[in-house]
Amino acid sequence: DAGVIQSPRHEVTEMGQEVTLRCKPISGHNSLFWYRQTMMRGLELLIYFNNNVPIDDSGMPEDRFSAKMPNASFSTLKIQPSEPRDSAVYFCASNRGSGNTIYFGEGSWLTVV
Amino acid sequence: AQSVAQPEDQVNVAEGNPLTVKCTYSVSGNPYLFWYVQYPNRGLQFLLKYITGDNLVKGSYGFEAEFNKSQTSFHLKKPSALVSDSALYFCAVRPHPSYSGAGSYQLTFGKGTKLSVIP
């Protein structure tokens, strides 16, 4: 099993630029989560998809953030325009159905300067 | 809404000694409880989980955790710490899948406890 695959692993970008983070969940998993990790706020759930449909996006900080899941094997998290306060580690995670263990990717480490 | 408390930001333990990382939780209904470990510059790795049954759960790398319903706790333990166990440990909780209220799918994490094992 390849695990959850995220890209890029590291990104440094200038304020105002668009950032796109990508995720491939574990094959067969039908739930996908995007989390953000910062020192100040810890791990925050940004958005949850089930069967490719966004179920809860209440954690998305503002309209600059958007996420899509066009098919069962791919999701994107986009920030446009990016700001320095968006600097964080963004994790994608997936699981197979309610209650099962959630598995995390290695994260995308974003720095906005 | 569910919540997790990890009362210690940091735990220091000598190599070979037993270790405990504390976790208490609040959730509607019966809980599903998890421990994850994060090594520097890495993602979260699943260690173990409690769903039902035996209150003592065994997981990866020799770790175990004890579920205590009356104290709403799920402390992580290991009989003999290794230097390589040094990492950030997260406790997490979600409601039992039979719970259909708001956020029923959501895994809520504690703020993490940094474990340092001293040679």
Instruction: Kindly state the number of beta strands of chain B.
Output: 12
Shape of chain B: globular
What is the N-to-C succession of helices and strands of chain A? EEEEEEEEEEE
Amino-to-carboxy terminus distance of chain A: 36 Å
Question: Approximately what portion of the residues of chain A adopt beta-strand conformation?
Answer: over 45%
What is the residue-averaged pLDDT of chain A? 94
Runs of chain B with pLDDT <50, length 5+? none
The assigned structural class of chain B equals mainly beta
- Secondary-structure element order of chain B, N to C: EEEEEEEEEEEE
Q: In percent, how helical is the residue content of chain A? A: under 10%
What is the alpha-carbon Rg of chain A in Å? 13 Å
Number of helices, where a helix is a run of at least 4 consecutive DSSP H or I residues of chain B: 0
Describe the structure.
The complex is a heterodimer of chains A (113) and B (119). Chain A contains no helices and eleven strands. Chain A is an all-beta fold and 113 residues long. In chain A, the strands form two sheets. In chain A, strands 2, 4, 5, 6, 9, 10 and 11 form a seven-stranded mixed β-sheet that branches. Chain B has strands spanning 3-5, 10-14, 19-21, 24-26, 31-38, 44-50, 56-58, 64-68, 73-78, 87-95, 108-109, 113-118. In chain B, a hairpin with a 5-residue loop joins β7 and β8 (64-68). Chain B starts with a strand and ends with a strand. The mean pLDDT of chain B is 92. The chains are: A mainly beta (113), B mainly beta (119).
